[in-house]
Structures are given as C-alpha cells and as structure tokens.
Amino acid sequence: MLFLPPSSNRPQAADLRNSSTVTEFVLVGFEQSSPSTRALLFTLFLALYSLAMAMNGLILFITWTDPRLNSPMYFFLGHLSFLDICFITTTIPQMLIHLVTKNHTVSFASCMTQMYLVFLVGVAECILLAFMAYDRYVAICHPLNYAQIMSHQVCARLVLTSWIFGMVNGVFLEYMSFRNPFCKDNHIENFFCEAPIVIALSCGDPQFSMKLIFVDAIVVLLSPMVLIVTSYARILASILSRASSSGRGKTFSTCASHLTVVVFFYTSAMFSYMNPRSTHGPDKDKPFSLLYTIITPMCNPMIYSFRNKEMKGAMGRALGRANLA
C-alpha cells in the first residue's frame, strides 16, 4: 500500500485558496417572475425610490439650510437622511435596471464594491441611531447641561465616528466575505450582493467566515441596541417622575418615532446577519432585504421628521421661498 506524505495535499489546498473560476455573479432577484409582475414591481419600486429620495433630500436640505433647525437633533436627522440616500442608491437603481433587462450579471469587482458600500452605510447608520438616542437622553434628563454636552464639535465628532467605524468595519466584513475563492454556482438568490448569500457560494468551508460575521453583527447591532435601550429606559423613568401630562405626550411622541425607526432597521438587519443560513431562503431573504434597503429609508422621514411641528414649519418656509423664487 502506498502512503502519500501529508505535505502532498498542500499544493492542492494552496491552489484552492489562490484560484477562483468565478469572474461574475448573476443576481437572480425577480428574474423568475412573469413580465407583467416585473413591470408592476418596476413601477412600484421606482415610485418608492423616487419618494424616498425626494423626502430624504428635502429633510437634508432644510436641516442644513434653515437656521432655526440648528439643534443637535436636526443635525443628526440630516445625516440620517444622507445615509438613507446613500443606502437606497447603492442597491435599488441596479434592481430597477435588472427588472427591465435580461442581463442580470455583475462583475466580481462590482459585487465587492456594492457589498462594501452596504456594509459602510449600514454600520454607520446603526451607530448614528445609537448616538441619536443618547442625544435625546441628554436633552430630556440633563436639559441644563445639554448645550455644553452636545456641542457642535461633539456632534460632528460623533457623526465622524459613525462613518469611520462603518469604513473600518466594512473592510473587515469585505475581507471575510471574499477570503475564499469562488468556483461553485455564481447565482445570488437576491437583488443585490448580500454577504451571507455570497459567502455560501464560496469554495471550502464558509462556516468560519459566517461565524466571524455573526460575532461582528452582535457587536455592531447589539452594542448600539444596549445604548438605545439604556437611554430610553432612563428617559422613561425621568419623564414619568417629573413631567406634566402634556410634556409627557410630546416626549413620548418624539421617543416613539425614534424607536419605530430603530425597530424597523434593526429587526431586518438582525434577520439577515444573525440567523443561521439554514433558516434562510429566497422567499425569506428578499422581503427583509427590501425592508431595510428601501422601506425603512422611505419611512424614516415620515416616522421621524414629518410628524415634528418644527420640521413642518421649516418645510413650509422652504416651499414658500421656492414659490417666491
């Protein structure tokens, strides 16, 4: 019997790590739907995308140009709208093109770029939502020191921190997603390059990458969630102990708006990145992907901003200046 030395398997393993036969991916998306269904979806998603861009663009414009909206809350709101614009632009235009064309292929580099941008913006938004909860905590529980604690310099540093954390974390997640070669099926059962689905297509054992992304999701999603829950628990205790009934209603309205945004965004992100792949499938992945890529960015302005009297007044002033012009 002939025994081969253990080292004889090493060249093959090295070739597996260093070679990839996949040069492009196919985004299946809604390819299997009928032409009439795709036309209906194109009309629907185009309307939602246009609405989301218009509303977030309006909020971005008025929060950065209206001198009456110079508080930290509106400063953060403007940056949240900017992140939402980046988020939906990263995924939805490509999906709209694929709904009306037969070619659903994307290059390897395009898939990597899209995934990195989704990571960057998504992580930055998670961190920013936590900072927004902290801002509400300081405003309600420490009103006398609010201007000193949440100065313009501090707010700018917090926003910069969310962007830097998103960039650095995006590099790590990108590396873990593409560390193995791709020599299997190149069909992605979604309308954009989502990390768990792409990793499942790689050669070798993808479990190591999936476990590290799961751990990263715990840090990125649950750590800000702890700050958000802690902030609102203290806010609730504060307003129940000292606020009048009218003050409670106003405070509850503001806090409920923010918590609604948090629940929408975090629920869909947790399902996509913190569930075992065995529980996933095209019918489950697509709805949640749509929720955090287009529905949440569209609902954020309505939930968080358009219910605010100061925002409505600023919009009226902006529209009045436009009519005069």
Task: Explain what the structure shows.
The chain is an all-alpha fold. The chain has a single domain (23-316), classed as Rhopdopsin 7-helix transmembrane proteins (Up-down Bundle), CATH 1.20.1070.10. Helix content is 75%, strand content 3%. It contains eleven helices and three strands. It has helices spanning 10-18, 35-65, 72-100, 108-141, 146-149, 152-178, 195-200, 207-242, 245-273, 282-305, 309-324; strands at residues 24-27, 105-107, 187-188. It has a three-stranded mixed β-sheet. α2 runs parallel beside α10 and α4 packs antiparallel against α9. The relative contact order is 0.13. Residues 1-18 have low confidence and may be disordered. Keywords: Cell membrane, G-protein coupled receptor, Membrane, Olfaction, Receptor, Sensory transduction, Transducer, Transmembrane, Transmembrane helix. Pfam families: 7tm_4 (PF13853). Belongs to the G-protein coupled receptor 1 family.
CATH superfamily: Rhodopsin 7-helix transmembrane proteins
Count of all domains: 1
Q: In terms of structural class, how would the helical and strand content be classed?
A: mainly alpha
- Roughly how much helix do the residues carry, as a percent range? over 70%
Q: Write down how many β-strands occur, each being a DSSP E stretch of 2 or more residues.
A: 3
Q: Which class in CATH terms?
A: Mainly Alpha
Name the strands of the widest sheet in spatial order: 2-1-3
**Major sheet description:** 3 strands, mixed
Number of helices: 11
